[in-house]
Design a protein that fits this description.
281 residues; Rossmann fold; alpha+beta; six-stranded antiparallel sheet; 2 domains; 17 strands; Tumour Suppressor Smad4
Amino acid sequence: MAKAVGVIYHPMIGAARDLSERLVECLAGLDAKAWVCSSWDEEGMAVHRQGTDMAISVGGDGTILRVARTVAAWDIPIVGVNMGHLGFMTEFSAAEVMAKLPAVLAGDCWVDRRAMLQVDLCCQSGDAGAKETTCHGLNDALVGRGPVPRIVNVATTVNGAPLSNYRADAVLVSTATGSTGYSLAAGGPILHPQSEEIVLKPVSAHLSLPYALVLPSTAEVRMVVHTHYEAVLSVDGQVNIPVRDGDAVSARRSPHSIRFLRTSPPELFYSALEKRLKVRE
């Protein structure tokens, strides 16, 4: 049974804050020690994460992405409570979480493990020489144009073999979890969420290879940016780093993964997919 639980909420959703307070009271009644924190307070989450048995994310998919990047290295399982719109990664609605939380704490659930990306940026520009930055993401990594609406050239290799010099708004590398996000909007395929494969998809390619590729989990995608303007590396749409001419970004499967705790049957993914992606009139 989980003894230490972190309740992490979206700070801009008043109902999420209120629900978090009620969850802390509920957890106390179930003999679990709880701490509460805003999902925008990464330092606060980092302080508490050691010794935490489970994290409850109260918000939407964006909140889960923030929580995932923080707890990934600690292999802390996540329970998602949907206070947003689509809620692809969340497990419970706000109305049902109180009733179903005792079963999760007792271990009456299954583990939905998701692959992540490791993204390494090597900046060649600047007086100090090359600088390295590494981050991990659950959804995707995008290398694309910055504030100036001009296409960028992205020389792309897979495991060292040349693939294409994309001329596009962006080149997107996605996990199976991220395949229902920006990658799907750009025309990419949907992968089963527990797949370990990687999707590579150019966005608005101009006179270059426009198709999506599904790569094995062992693939390393290297993207070298050529542009006269500032470009950007965006991880999960939340970590955004300026990229300049000659900078290189590598994306591959992360050594970390995320565990979601589920009480609904695994087969629910298919019906939920149809429901959430249905065009609404």
